[in-house]
Give the backbone structure.
Amino acid sequence: MPYVAVSALSHPGLLRERNEDSLVIGPWTLCATVTESPQTLVFPLGTPLVVAVADGLGGQPGGDVASALVVRRIASIGPALRSEDAVRDTLNACNRAVYEAAEGDERSELAAMGTTVAGAVIQSGSLLAFNVGDSRVFAASRDGLRQLSVDDSPPLAPGQRTTSLVTQCLGGAPAYRAIHPHVTAGSLSPGDRYLVCTDGVTDPLTTDVLDAVMREYDDGRAAFELWKAAIEAGGPDNITLAVVRVGDGSGGGL
C-alpha cells in the first residue's frame, strides 16, 4: 500500500526564549514544544493529508497563540482539503479566526498577533502546496531543491540574502486585513520528497546546504541533520521542519 512518511521536529533555536512555531501532520499537532529528536509518522496515501508549519510573528505578544490556533484549525478540516479553492477558503477562515481571537482578548495584549503558514496537502496522485508569509515548501529531487511556495517578503537590498519582514500573514495587524494565499497544484508519485519549514531553517542555511542534506539523508535523519545545521549556523530563530516522503509500499522499509 502506498504511504506517506513524515519526519518532523520543532525547537526554539539558540537565541529565542520560547518557541512560537507550531506544526500539523494530519490530525497530529505540535505547538510551542521542544523536540530535538525527530518524530516520524506514517500514513496510508489516500485521504488528504496536511503537513504544515506556522511561524508566530516575533516582536509582539501572541505569536505562539496565533500559530497554534491556525494549525489546530487546519488539523480539524484537513481531510476535506481536496481542491485549491478548499485550501484558500481554509486559509482565509484561519485569518479571520486569528483576528477574532485577538479581538476577544480583553487586555488587548494579542491585538496584533499573527503567524505565517506553509504546507502541503498530499493525496493520491497530487499535491497542493500553499503558503501565506515566508515559511517555505520545497520539492526535493535529483535535480535539486525546487521552491513551491512564494515568499511574501519585500525586495531584498543588494547583498541581502534574507529579511524578517513579511508583506502578508494571518493576523498581524490591529484591524482586519484580507490575504491572498498562494496555492500551487502538482502531480505526486512514489519516491517524491518534500521539505516544509519555517525561516528558522532557511534564514541561516543556504539552499545549497538544504539540498546537500536532503540528497544524503531520508526521513528522521534528514530532519535531524537539518536541525543540527541550523543550530551550528547560530540557531537565530525557532526551527520547525517536516521532511515528507511518498513510498510505494513495495518493501525496503522506512
The mean pLDDT is 93. The CA atoms of residues 3 and 44 lie 4 Å apart.
